[in-house]
Structures are given as structure tokens and as C-alpha cells.
Amino acid sequence: MLHTTCIASAAGTRTAFNNSEQAISEVVRLGAGTHQSSASQRNSTVLSPSTYWDQYQDITKSNAHLSVAERLWAAWYAWMQNDVLATGIMSFAIHELFYFGRCLPWIFIDSFGFFKKYKIQSSKVPSLREQWDCAKFVLLSHFTVELPQIWLFHPMAQFCGLSTSIPFPSLWTMAYQIAIFFVMEDTWHYFCHRAFHWGPLYKTIHKVHHQYSAPFGLAAEYASPIEVMILGFGTVSSPILWCALTGDLHILTMYIWIVLRLFQAIDAHSGYEFPWSLHHFLPFWAGADHHDLHHEKFIGNYASSFRWWDYLLDTEYSPDAMKRRREKKVKADKTQ
Ligand SMILES: [Zn+2]
Ligand SMILES: [Zn+2]
């Protein structure tokens, strides 16, 4: 059963509908519709706006209290009349747009040699050819491995109580839920990634991702299909698990989570460490130098977003961590 909850009211009161078809016909019926009269003239009982923008205008007429974003949102789900398809297309489009969009500045920075003094491994700048080959591989992976995962998200989350309703949840609700998803995903990523460095798994799965010892933005999702599926599971299942436990998840929160997680992964692979990088202000944030060292040395720094798992389980690889380990060893030798 489709489950778009659309808000529409001729008199300004809100009405919840349980599926897209009901929503779309109610929106048209309640709206002072030119479409309604034209449909009547055609002697038709189906009062459905023909285009997305017709749908948007109909919703706007009877829902002045909604923000533009909320109207665009409601029009999309009402017009599509298939929530799984609406979410699938939207998620995939967001993923492609923000992945490649976020990579573009890094491609320019590498190509034109901007910020050279902030490049972590300054002698290893990726060529345009390397970046193009990487982009083709990533694109293939998006269509073959990630697309089915994105498609499955909506029915699974819907089963757990996912909401597509308007108005949107508050900024605070979205912020704290996304913070929880970051913590959940980071934990999943740490243990899976650490396991991937076990000999047989490294050779058969994770070696692909380590092709670039000096990473760059596009290389964030350059990995074997099995790795993409396993690590992607952490990104998709964190909100699903949250939704199953609390019954409180809006799909807009999921979209923003996907975008922020993409930004985190791409920036961690950028190869640049700036004085204004986030981990200088949030010391537990992993950032680019954390993951760059992992690609350079092939050991330690397994977490994605935060530094605490590597710190707690003594897998941190940094000058400070090495120093701490040396001091600990000297101390232990003295006591023997
Ligand atoms: Zn690795
Ligand atoms: Zn990596």
C-alpha cells in the first residue's frame, strides 16, 4: 500500500491522505482547479493535473500555509503516484548530483594546482586521466550496485514507519537523528573496514579501494561491488534501524543524511588538509589526514567519520599515536 501523506485543504485546515492516488485526487478536487473545469468539459472523472507544475500550482492554490519546499515535495509525491518510484528516482538523482558535484571542486583544485601547500601527499597529484578512469568505474558501480540498494530503501523503511508527510520535521529533529546516523554508520564502517584488512578479505575485496595510495575525491566510492554493498549497508540500514526502533523518520532526513555522508566520504579522500578543516574544531572528527594516512600506510585509521574507535581500540595511526605507543613500550620494558 502506498503511503504518501499529502496535506491539502480548501479552507486552510489540514487533511491527511493515506496514499498518493487519494492525495492527488483530493488535492485537485479541493483546489479551485482550472484542471477540474477542463476535466469536466472533457466529461472525464479522472481529475489529474497533466504535468508536475500543474500539480504544484493546484497544491499551492489550496495550501498557502506551506513553504515552497513543502509544496514542491507534495507535488512530486502526488504527481508520481508511486512512492517507491518517487523516492528511488529522487535518492538516485541526489546521490549522483551531490557525489559528482562535490568532487568537481577537488578536480579543479588538483588540475590547476590550487592549495598545493595543503596537499597531504604533495608529490602525488592525480592526473586528469586517472580521475576520468576512476569516475567511469564509480558511475558503473552506482548503476549496478547502489541503485538496487537505493530502490530497496523505501519499502524497507516504510515497513518500519517511514514518513513522507508535510510539513517537514523540525531542524532539531533532523539534526539529532543525522548525528545518531553518523555514530551508527561510523561504528559499522570501523569494524567492517578493519575486517577488510584481514589478509584474505583484503586480497579479494578491499585491495581495489587501495589502488590509490594518495586518494582524491572521486576515489571515495572506488571499491569492489562487495565492499560498496557491505559499507553502503551501514549508510542505508542506520536510518532503517532507527526507524524500526522509534517509528520516527522522515525521508527528507534520509536525503540530507545521504548528502552529508557523501560529503564526509569525498572530503576524507580529498587529499587536502586545511587550517580550517573541521577536525581542528571538532577533535574527534576524522577528516582528510586521518584517512589519507590510511591510504598511504595501509594500516590503522579504519573509522569513517570519527576518531574514537581507532583511539579506543588502539588502531590510530598518527604521529601522536605512534609516540604514545613508543612511550608505552619503553615504560613496559622498564618494568620488566
Ligand atoms: Zn582500507
Ligand atoms: Zn578510502
What does this protein structure show overall?
It comes from Penicillium patulum. This is Fatty acid hydroxylase. GO terms for molecular function: iron ion binding; oxidoreductase activity. The protein has 13 helices and two strands; from the N terminus they run ααααααβαααβαααα. The longest helix has 32 residues. It is globular, with a radius of gyration of 24 Å. Helix content is 62%, strand content 1%. The chain has one domain. The site of one zinc ion (ZN) has 5 residues, from α11. One zinc ion binds next to loops.
What is the topology?
Layout: H1 20-30, H2 34-41, H3 52-62, H4 68-80, H5 83-112, H6 128-159, E1 162-163, H7 171-196, H8 199-204, H9 225-246, E2 249-250, H10 251-268, H11 287-297, H12 308-312, H13 319-335
Parallel strand pairs: 1-2
Helix pairs in contact: 1-3, 1-4, 3-4, 5-6, 5-10, 6-9, 7-9, 7-10
One zinc ion (ZN) is lined by residues 193, 197, 206, 210, 294.
